[in-house]
Amino acid sequence: MPTYVATGRDSAGRQRKERISASNPGEARNLLKDRGLFIQDLKEERGFDLDLDSLQTALTSVSVKDKAVFSRQFAALVNAGVALVRGLGVLAEECQNPKLKKSLEEINADVQEGTSLSDAMRKHPGCFDNLYVSLVQAGEVGGVLDEVLNRLAKLLEDLNRLQNQIKSAMAYPVTVSILATVIFIAMTVFLLPTFADIFEQFDAELPVFTQVMLLISVFLRQPLNWVFMIGAAVGAVFVYRRYYATPSGRRTMDRFFLKMPLFGDLVQKTATARFCRTFGALSRSGVPILTSLEIVRDTAGNQVISDAIDEARKEIQTGGMISIALQQHRVFPIMAIQMISIGEETGELDQMLMKVADFYEDEVEQAVKALTSIMEPLMIIFLGGMVGSILISMYLPMFKIMEIVQ
User: What is the pLDDT of residue 291?
Assistant: First the structure.
């Protein structure tokens, strides 16, 4: 049973610190109340003993699909008139994700103490990001929490569908690349040396291509070389992450991703669909435009696009238009800029943003299909080239051997 450490004041107003064992934060608060402690802060005590449940919770991540399912179920409960505490308790019991389950239990305990739902969710950024919390806060203020939760569920479902489309586009080339690499290494390490011994018996001069492949085979059969290659790969990943963590590095790499052949167009359309869907959902829920742009900027996923959104926010602060600021950076498609401009002029920006999001989500789906159809023959050529290089290196010396035999 976990142990909680609470700080607060007693009935005399003195500051106190208490330790208590309880199954969840809500039970700990109730027990401490019975002791006459007015809780100001409650945290779970972290000891040095290995807690498998805590380790599993720490290693588990909350996916977009998990949040979408929770939002849809929570909206149904709120719409049916179920109290927030009761609804959170039911969903916490049914939740399969340990990290989300623990967060819901703590949120439920905070709501019982009188904390608003949005403030309670804000304490758990690993489960509920700034976008989610802002929409929930807008729903609480406007008294339309069930409607906002349904919009959140729709937004997260669309985002999950986009992610799945991109993953499906990448699954085929990644799988074929791994398969080709494994086949190439296996044939180079195990098959090619057998033929090399045969070639040496005839004392024939090997072609240059075969000599190169034999050198690769010798290199791959040395365990120390594998350690060197793995270390080099890990070092390259570390250097890349360190570079990407810097503002200039992130900006440079994200700009490169937008200009990549084949994939650059997909990245741009995906970012456009996400921006319009998120911005439209925030605007439709009553979140102020400047606040909405700050949230969208932080959830854009691309630093170049985030810079363009930030410039648009500054443009609005000085009385400008979003479309003009976005057009200056040239990171969004012209059609999207024009439709956003029409939405600003007609006063129906949220509706126009949703239409743009629908259009570019369809474009992403078509781009994924086109990319998959292009990648299939390229991957077949790649696989055939790696396997063929081994076969050619083995068959080329046979012509020399035949000459010697004759």
Answer: 84
